[in-house]
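With this grant's support, we have settled on a layout for protein records. A representative record follows, to show the layout.
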Amino acid sequence: MMDVQELYDMSKKAQEPKGYFFSTDREWVDGLLSALLVNKDRYGYMVCPCRLATGDKKKDRDIICPCVYRTEDVAEYGSCYCNLYVSSDWNAGKIPHEYVPERRPLEKMGF
């Protein structure tokens, strides 16, 4: 099984060229990465640890990390919902660290 450092290294290499960086809060990042690995073990895929998963990959597809909402969140707020992936300006403190509202539609959350 992959460990947190391996996931960190692999994800960093894949995402930084796309303009997505890990938050500089390594303790926060490691906690989220650890939760992603728990979810992979639990569900078979790395579903967002900040959201409730159904366990049905088809229903959870939009929240498999990196979720489909990340692009819009980072463009607007400089951070994704979880504060795992951020922009370089967010890390550099050039933009405020605001609360990122949930974009996932209520009907996808089972409401």
In short: Helices lie at 4-15, 26-43, 57-60, 70-77, 88-91. The CA atoms of residues 15 and 21 lie 7 Å apart. Strands lie at 21-22, 85-86. The chain has five helices and two strands.
